[in-house]
Design brief:
The protein is mostly beta strands. Strands 1, 2, 3, 4, 5, 6, 7, 8, 9 and 10 form a ten-stranded mixed sheet that branches. The relative contact order is 0.25.
Amino acid sequence: MKRLILPAALLALAACDQGPAPEAPAAVATSDALCRPTPNGRDATGCYLTLTASRNDRLVSVSSPAADEGQIHEMKVTDGMMSMAELEDGLPLPAGEAVSLRPGGDHIMLIGLKQPLVAGEQVSLTLTFEHAPAMGIRAMVGQPPAAGQGTPHG
């Protein structure tokens, strides 16, 4: 009888095993969203925020009803020259790490603004990710703090 109990128990446990638990849905938290005002008739501006993904993800696109186009840009220095270029494959968001888009670094560009962005107002942005659902946010319009002076708060 004892010889039958152990195999029966193992079979019962195997039948209960439903495989690995499903992975939690991807989510991205945002904070400190800010877009620069556009004086003197400029039709493009930079936007900044901090993104924290619950699992490895990627910001793949940005859009806004306030602009014809949104792009994700990187800033880099090559041979002493600073350059800006669109990140064609989007911006990697490592799980659990805060990724800050800021002046002088990675950032969002709104191009072809339909009207000037005025300090104190807000602008709508839609962020699209590889895994997490698309997210609509409102960014304050204002000047970001100078480098080293903390996070931007509209």
